[in-house]
Write a structure and sequence with these properties.
Helices cover 10% and strands 36% of the residues. By secondary structure, it is mostly beta strands. It has one domain. The chain is built from one helix and four strands. It is globular and about 40 Å long.
Amino acid sequence: MSGIAYQLELPGEPLLRVERSLPTPKRRQLLVRNLATSVNFHDILNVMGVLPNLAWPRVPFSDNCGEIITLGGMSRAGRSGTG
């Protein structure tokens, strides 16, 4: 299964629309389908490459709203939906 992501290959380069395979959540993790995102100052610093210890390529967005798709092992079932 795959999904679409917008990622930066290197600092200062434009966002690229890429297809990525979806990861399988590990214990105490979950997989979220992103429905909305905002661009904030932290994201601009990511694009500029001024934050230390960044791994490239990277998806710069830090504030998101989404829907839980899959729970990893040992996760407690909770309310599903958006939020």
